[in-house]
Design a protein that fits this description.
There is one protein chain. With 615 residues, the chain is of the alpha/beta class. The chain is built from 25 helices and 13 strands. The strands form 4 sheets. Strands 7-12-11-8-9-10-13 form a 7-stranded mixed beta sheet. A two-stranded antiparallel sheet has the order 1-2. Strands 3-4 form a two-stranded antiparallel sheet. Helix 6 packs across helix 7, helix 8 runs antiparallel to helix 17 and helix 13 packs parallel to helix 15. It is flat, with a radius of gyration of 32 Å. The model has no long low-confidence stretch (mean pLDDT 85).
Length: 615
């Protein structure tokens, strides 16, 4: 029923239809500007509009006339649509490379404008020379302020342990703060700018480990489970750029990747550091499907999220078990097919087929699980052509995320899930997918797991899968770990004797970081900063390095833990908990990396700490 309603103002904020109405209003302005000023680049985001005008200082340029005309068009549009343009929120910024910028000021229908030195757009501060020094300083301040304010809230209101909070802060908050890093990544090439960010990250690592501010960065960051700042920032640049490229067209991605601008160069180098090539990034687009065309008779497919113990299986059915595996050696999928009659009798000795598949090592576990499910449908397609077609198919797998996707497979843009949906939509034979508990000793799942492991070892049929955004991100994370580990091994000769003893590999440090984040004194011990006289003497806080109870012995960590008679009464639980089963002498490495409870070591250190500070 047609109706009219007079508007006194433009679209109200917070109304249900406001986003739709605002776009309707704004489109007319964007269309007019783009038609009349083809030289301009328009970027609209929510109620923000950014208009970029190129100009030349060498020859006469109609810049002022263009700005005045654009302001006139905007003013006429705002009056026609009863929208108020705030002069205070409108900015005129000149981006330039010369040392002497043009001095721009003008009076327009929107008000008086003077050239400003920076523009904040979508939370990123663009200074007039695109050096981003202020943005980096602001980012560092945000990391510090969020660290302290959220830590206080976590400790007081939410009762979150410090170790758990820092894990969340490093894994979730820091990436959010660095969300715009692709814009200002090239600014990190400047040592002062890089130092500003790395100091903020170092503060987070220091609070995470509760060690001294003098702890060497080489041991501090791994103990916090945090890569060194350069590696961390390069990883964030690469991850963010992959997300951007997946949303751009292939031609736009190519243009950006091959550009010679400083940000593009930095992004390209960050990707190349992790062996991600131009072809890999452009391959994301060839692996993406267009928005699916949903058939008129679209249906959701049979997926059961509870294990039915094969109650729905009939003797004439075929039953598949599929699984995926991801190991340091590679990624694989496995499929086992059996007659329904055998499954109902518990007979797994007569399989119809057993197949293993090897996927690219960068493929995530989701891809491996989905590939196993897809292969079960491909095998089913070949069985349908038999002279006596089966009465139904059942596939059992232990990954619920894949099962949820298969339920709505026709709506999926994931290539593997979409292929499963196409088969299920076209087949006339009933097909159901079921969840089965993984690693619970159920024979069919065990067989599929073994087949998947066989594939992840590189012994299955090759299944070349084009890189997706997720697989490239997985590849990037693997590469980060390899580079970090290689750097650790290469620089180990520069470390202290204690670090060499305890952490001959990066994995040793990270395994401790996972276990000991809530034991601050254990981390102090591993950082070589437990207050023995030897350590205090090295920082000029003690007149002697010798033990207060054993004047002829150097008071180092080895003496404190194993030999000083003053702590014999505390040492009983320590020795009993950590002593090697083969009877070999107990060492510090046994204590840190053994199977004993680090809580016992921490309690021992607390008692020692109290004894030291009571004197």
């Amino acid at each position: 029923m047609p109706a009219k309603h007079s508007l006194n103002l433009s679209t109200p904020q917070g109304a249900v239809l406001s986003p739709f109405l605002w776009n309707t209003f704004l489109d007319t302005l964007l269309d007019t500007l783009s038609l009349k000023h083809t030289e301009a680049t328009l970027i609209a985001w929510a109620d923000n509009v950014l208009i970029l005008l190129p100009f030349s200082t060498i020859k006469d340029d109609p810049l002022f006339d263009n700005i005045l005309d654009i302001c006139t068009i905007i003013n006429e549009w705002s009056q026609a649509n009863k929208a108020t343009i705030s002069a205070k929120k409108s900015h005129l910024v000149c981006f330039y490379r010369d040392k002497n910028p043009p001095n721009i000021s003008l009076t327009s229908p929107l008000g008086y404008f003077e050239m400003e030195l920076s523009l904040t757009f979508l939370g990123i501060e663009f200074d007039s020379q695109l050096l981003f020094a202020s943005q980096l300083t602001s980012t560092a301040k945000n990391i510090k302020s969020l660290l302290f304010s959220l830590k206080y809230a976590a400790r007081t209101a939410l009762k979150i342990p410090s170790g758990a909070f820092i894990t969340m802060f490093i894994g979730a908050v820091i990436p959010k703060v660095l969300y715009g890093i692709t814009c200002w990544s090239h600014a990190l090439n400047s040592t002062p700018n890089f130092t500003v960010i790395s100091q903020a990250l170092r503060l987070a690592a220091t609070i995470a480990t509760r060690t001294s501010v003098t702890t060497p960065s080489s041991i501090l960051f791994p103990l916090a489970g945090l890569p060194p700042p350069k590696l961390l920032l390069d990883k964030e640049i690469a991850l963010r750029s992959l997300t951007i490229f997946s949303q751009l067209s292939q031609s736009a991605s190519y243009q950006l990747l091959t550009s010679s601008t400083p940000p593009a160069t930095k992004i390209r180098n960050s990707l190349l550091q992790h062996n991600i090539l131009l072809a890999d990034v452009l391959g994301i687009h060839s692996n993406q499907l267009p928005a699916p065309t949903i058939p008129p008779d679209c249906k959701y497919f049979k997926v059961f999220m509870h294990f039915d113990n094969f109650k729905s299986v009939k003797p004439q059915d075929f039953v598949f078990f599929s699984d995926g595996s991801k190991t340091p050696l590679g990624t694989g999928s496995g499929v086992a097919c059996f007659h329904g009659s055998d499954i109902l009798q518990g007979n797994y000795s007569n399989p119809v087929t057993l197949q293993s598949f090897t996927l690219p090592i960068s493929s995530p576990i989701y891809q491996a699980e989905a590939t196993g499910a897809l292969e079960s449908t491909l095998i089913a397609a070949s069985l349908i052509t038999n002279p006596s077609p089966p009465s139904g198919f059942h596939t059992y797998l232990d990954n619920q995320a894949v099962l949820h996707s298969i339920h709505k497979a026709l709506y999926s843009q994931h290539p593997t899930i979409s292929h499963i949906g196409s088969f299920l939509h076209n087949t006339q034979v009933p097909f159901a997918f079921h969840w089965i508990p993984g690693h619970k000793g159920l024979q069919g799942n065990v067989i599929a797991d073994l087949l998947a492991n066989h594939g992840s070892s590189g012994l299955g049929k090759a299944r070349p899968i084009p890189h997706s955004k997720d697989s490239l991100k997985s590849l990037l994370r693997q590469s980060l770990k390899q580079i970090w580990s290689s750097n650790w091994t290469r620089n180990l000769h520069k470390a202290s004797p204690l670090t060499k003893l305890l952490f001959p590999s990066l994995n040793k440090v990270l395994s401790l970081a996972d276990k000991a984040s809530k034991y601050s004194l254990v981390l102090k011990l591993c950082a070589g900063q437990f207050p023995t006289n030897s350590y205090l003497f090295s920082i000029k806080q003690s007149p002697t390095p010798y033990c207060s109870h054993c004047p002829s012995k150097i008071d180092n960590i080895d003496h404190l833990l194993f030999h000083c008679p003053s702590y014999d009464h505390l040492r009983t639980d320590l020795i009993g908990t950590f002593s090697p089963p083969d009877g070999s002498p107990l060492t510090l490495s046994h204590i840190i990396h053994g199977k004993g409870d680090l809580k016992i070591l921490n309690l021992f250190l607390i008692h020692v700490w109290k004894t030291i500070h009571s004197h």
